[in-house]
Design a protein that fits this description.
Elements (H helix, E strand, L loop, with lengths): L47 E3 L2 E10 L5 H15 L6 E7 L11 H8 L21 E4 L2 H10 L6 E3 L25 H26 L1
Parallel strand pairs: 2-3, 2-4, 4-5
Antiparallel strand pairs: 1-2
Family: Belongs to the low molecular weight phosphotyrosine protein phosphatase family.
Pfam families: LMWPc
GO molecular function: protein tyrosine phosphatase activity
Length: about 210
């Protein structure tokens, strides 16, 4: 996995307290979570209210909020719009750490998105308690999922993005994570885009159910 070293976490500086990899120390499913990353018990939705209307709120989570999660945010927003759900969903993204708060998207992520007609405007932010109540808190890899559990997010709200990809399991353990492209070349960002693309139909389907 690209970036799977103590100092290689979406550009975050190394410190003694940093996790040793993007995927975290424990990659297995947590209590109350199915191996696919989907909750094993029904979830109660608490909708956000925008302009007096109730919307499903989706928050994507990666490490620094400059590569994977903003790519997922931008791509999901278009997918929801194309599915006729754009006015019924609120989409955002955050990072588990504060290393890039206030910065724009990684230039390579922006270039990959722009090449496919996506908007690239973005300002990085960090996970906060206000994000815990999103209807779906979507982790980009198992390390982010584990961080959400430790932060106290309701397990029934947590998803792994690639759990929506019906073919992700064909890649074995690597199939659980959207690969970290930060320390690779431009092809890593193409891979990230394709992995997100494969998961979006499943995510759209669940959000459609929530809006029904």
């Amino acid at each position: 996995m690209i970036g799977d070293r103590e100092h290689d976490i979406e550009g975050a500086p190394a410190t003694a307290s940093r996790p040793r990899s993007c995927a975290g120390a424990t990659g297995g499913p947590r209590s109350g979570t199915a191996p696919t990353g989907r909750p094993s018990t029904p979830r109660r939705s608490r909708r956000s209210s925008v302009g007096g209307e109730s919307r499903v709120r989706v928050v994507f989570v990666c490490t620094g909020n400059i590569c994977r999660s903003p790519m997922a945010e931008v791509m999901a927003r278009r997918a929801f719009h194309d599915a006729g759900l754009g006015d019924r969903v609120t989409v955002s993204s955050v990072g588990t750490g504060d290393w890039h708060v206030g910065n724009g998207m990684d230039a390579r992520a922006a270039a990959e998105l722009a090449a496919h007609g996506y908007d690239t405007g973005h300002v990085a932010s960090q996970l906060s308690p206000g994000d815990h109540d999103a209807d779906l808190v979507v982790a980009l890899d198992t390390g982010h999922r584990d961080h959400l559990h430790r932060a106290g997010v309701d397990p029934a709200r947590i998803r792994l993005l690639r759990s929506y990809d019906p073919r992700a399991h064909e890649h074995g353990a690597d199939g659980a994570d959207v690969a970290d492209p930060y320390y690779g070349d431009d092809s890593g960002f193409t891979r990230t885009r394709l992995q997100i693309t494969a998961a979006l139909p499943g995510l759209v389907a669940e959000v459609r159910e929530l809006t029904g």
